[in-house]
Write a structure and sequence with these properties.
Keywords: Aminotransferase, Pyridoxal phosphate, Transferase
Shape: globular
Strand order of the largest sheet: 2-10-9-8-5-3-4
Largest sheet: 7 strands, mixed
Cofactor: pyridoxal 5'-phosphate
CATH superfamily of the largest domain: Type I PLP-dependent aspartate aminotransferase-like (Major domain)
Distance between the termini: 31 Å
Protein name: Alanine--glyoxylate aminotransferase family protein
InterPro entries: Aminotrans_V_dom, Aminotrans_V_PyrdxlP_BS, PyrdxlP-dep_Trfase, PyrdxlP-dep_Trfase_major, PyrdxlP-dep_Trfase_small, SP_NH2Trfase/AEP_transaminase
Helix content: 40-55%
Order of helices and strands: EHHHEHEHEHEEEHEEEHHHHEHEEHH
Family: Belongs to the class-V pyridoxal-phosphate-dependent aminotransferase family.
Oligomer: single chain
Number of domains: 2
CATH architecture of the largest domain: 3-Layer(aba) Sandwich
Number of helices: 14
Length: about 375
């Protein structure tokens, strides 16, 4: 075994294409040079269809959480009434961020492993007697592998309230369809290290004109994450108010080229195929999944570990096969592991991880499962060839 060859199937960070690494490796330029505005404008506009945005996408130097915080810090004023859909660890993080900025946060708690149903959100919103300023939701809840029905939830938000609709797309943008105008999304945020095939370090914020007006008039104090500064810098000279992550932005430019070459509709189809291969393969060897097929994300699959041997799968995958998967978070710690299948991932990669899981189960429990998950995944793949 060449143990220096590591295989990354975590739900982020994800593998980086060689051509993206090469793009990030080109000579550094000054971020106040004549070249940088051309680079930034190219990336900000080429990301528009990926975010389903009618405006250029704002690029920050920071993690995905900085984008979540920017969305809250630029909208929330002290004692604003805010609703957050909490269906996992990252919905909980969104709520905590909002509380930090002084909001009165109303948490709509959804069972971890299930998606929020539109009727649940509608009933919850109608139960709040005060005017709601914003509703925060998570498109893909990374901690559970759930994809929330963001379009349907957006219809409910605008039907029941005049609130902004703010969506965390960190672990799925670049792999799923999205239409900010058609889905009533006012602010959509994401990060670089998931489906967008980049290292950690970039955050993205897409805003419609309604959100920009609210941000412009928000009196809350902020500095580095003040989106007004970013919008003004971009509109004035296609620049950023603070030092940008230049090399990562070069990488983002190459990612945009890759998405365009594959065709974004094909990118979406590929991720749906990867999801089906993973899920059907695991079902074939009777490994329980956390989410239903209907609620499952195309970018990450959560696998239950219901007995003591299965709780060792994550460690043995790493020790014996150099495969890294994600563990459970918060109350799901030790109860699941998570397989990331997003970004720079192909059906061949799925075959690799499923084959390793088969061998791990054979080693742990003596189960005669060799070839079963792989065969079922190959059958699914053949249906799409």
């Amino acid at each position: 075994m060449l143990l220096d060859q590591q295989y990354l199937f975590a739900p982020g960070p994800t593998p980086i294409p060689d051509r993206v690494k090469a793009a990030m490796n080109q000579p550094m330029i000054a971020h106040r040079s004549q070249e940088f505005p051309t680079l930034l404008e190219d990336v900000a506009t080429r990301l528009m269809p990926v975010f389903g945005s009618e405006n250029p996408v704002t690029v920050l130097a920071g993690s995905g959480t900085s984008a979540l915080e920017a969305a809250a810090a630029n909208v929330i004023e002290e004692n604003d009434e805010i609703v957050v859909v909490v269906a996992g660890a990252f919905g909980d993080r969104f709520a905590s961020i909002c509380e930090t900025f002084g909001a009165n946060v109303h948490r709509l708690n959804i069972e971890w492993g299930a998606a929020c149903k539109p009727e649940q959100l509608e009933e919850f919103l109608q139960s709040i007697p005060k005017e709601i300023k914003a509703v925060f939701a998570t498109y893909c809840e990374t901690s559970t592998g759930v994809l929330n029905p963001i379009k349907d939830l957006g219809e409910v938000v605008k039907k029941v309230t005049n609130a902004l609709y703010i969506v965390d797309g960190v672990s799925c943008i670049g792999a799923v369809p999205v239409d900010m105008k058609g889905w009533n999304i006012d602010i959509l945020v994401s990060g670089s290290q998931k489906a967008l095939m980049l290292p950690p370090g970039l955050a993205f914020v897409a805003m419609n004109d309604t959100a920009r007006e609210v941000i412009r008039n928000c009196k809350a104090k902020r500095f580095y994450l003040d989106l007004n500064r970013y919008l003004a810098s971009y509109e004035t000279d296609k620049s950023t108010p603070f030092t940008p992550a230049v090399s990562l932005i070069y990488g983002a430019q190459e990612v945009c080229r890759m998405l365009e070459e594959e065709g974004f509709e094909n990118v979406i189809k590929r991720h749906l195929l990867l999801k089906e291969m993973v899920r059907e393969g695991l079902k074939a060897i009777e490994i329980p999944l956390l989410t239903s097929d209907e609620d499952a994300s195309p970018t990450v699959t959560a696998v239950r570990t219901i007995d003591e041997p299965s709780k060792q799968i994550k460690k043995l995958l790493k020790d014996k096969f150099a495969i890294t998967v994600g563990g459970g978070q918060k109350k799901l710690k030790g109860e699941i592991f998570r397989i990331g299948h997003m970004g720079y991932c192909t059906p061949f990669d799925v075959i690799k991880v499923l084959g390793s899981i088969e061998m791990t189960l054979k080693f742990l429990e003596g189960k005669d499962v060799l070839g079963i998950a792989v065969k079922r995944a190959e059958e699914v793949w053949m249906e799409h060839v």
